[in-house]
Design brief:
The chain is an all-alpha fold and 83 residues long. The longest helix has 14 residues. It is built from 4 helices and no strands.
């Protein structure tokens, strides 16, 4: 069995990074907050394993959030959508 490929968020523009930081500081909804932190950590080069350990969430959750953000952008952070 081979090693799973690394999963990272797409390159994030400076303004997107600022927006993610604002969300991670000010979000009232815990789902949106958690998703923003996952994306921000990935954008800063943290690996899937590091994020799962620090956030205490599963690899599938982190992978799903990253893939959703790569596909849909900030809409993927909305708690009313599936990550």
């Amino acid at each position: 069995m081979g090693r799973r490929p690394s999963v990272f968020v797409r390159p994030v523009a400076m303004e997107e990074g600022r927006k993610l930081q604002r969300i991670s500081r000010n979000a009232k909804d815990p789902v949106k907050l958690r998703r923003a932190i996952v994306v921000l950590m990935s954008a800063r080069g943290q690996t899937l394993k590091d994020i799962t350990t620090l956030m205490q969430v599963g690899e599938d959750y982190v992978s799903d959030v990253i893939h959703a953000f790569n596909e849909r952008g900030f809409d993927a952070l909305d708690p009313n959508t599936n990550a």
